[in-house]
Amino acid sequence: MTDYANSAVSGPGSAIRVLLADDEEMVRHGVRLILRHAEGIEVVGEAANGAEAVRLAAGDRPDVVLLDVRMPVLDGLAAVEPLTALDPAPQVVMLTTFGDEENVLRALRAGATGFLLKDEGPQELIRAVRAAAAGDAVLSPGVTGTVVRRMLSGGGPPVQDRRVAGLTDREREVLVMLGEGLSNLEIGGRLGIGVGTVKTHVGSILGKTGCGSRVQAALLAHQAGLMG
After folding, report:
1. Mind listing the pLDDT tens digit for each residue in 140-191?
2. At CA 142, angle to CA 48 and CA 45, rounded to 5?
3. Per-residue pLDDT tens for 106-152?
4. What is the DSSP string of 104-164?
5. How far apart are the first and last CA of the chain?
6. Cβ of 213: how many Cβ atoms within 10 Å?
């Protein structure tokens, strides 16, 4: 476990603060080297288990936590809820391996921002950190389709249909675009509206549907049959 306690707390225009949590030292080392050379990103601490991650996050207030699914003491799945309950809450991105879709679904339902395969390239990792910090979903293309299929096989859509019934036409449009994995900037460009307006729509969607994150909303769009 490494705690870079002297790092400054983030503020407007400052670097994205990242906490790494993985029980494999080589994984942490590799991720740290990649992010160290990325402009505007700062690694503020490292943890070898979920309990350390929660403790460090409470003190260092990272913007993004990269959280391994499987760890000793407290695994990543169990750490998601206490991390997202912090004030301010970091964006939690699960680090996973292909074939771990059931655990990914559990993490998303608990409030994780998304998931990233451990074998993704350096640029994908950097983009994922920046997307998470901006409040966008992080969905690794190699797993997204399988996760959606697993979600759809978990039950029929009647409850989900009722959850989207109260959305306005514009909110439904935005929800469909969340289901496509678009960022706020991309949604705004397609609809001809500002990013701030997109964020307002997303917040309204989350409030009306009871989704804890835009990733949960994206999965809801699929489950509710809104994706054509």
Report:
1. 766 666 666 666 565 544 455 688 989 999 999 999 998 887 888 889 999 9
2. 20
3. 887 788 888 888 888 899 899 999 989 988 877 776 666 666 666 65
4. HHHHHHHT--EEEETT--HHHHHHHHHHHHTT--EE-HHHHHHHHHHHHTT--SHHHHHHH
5. 47
6. 22
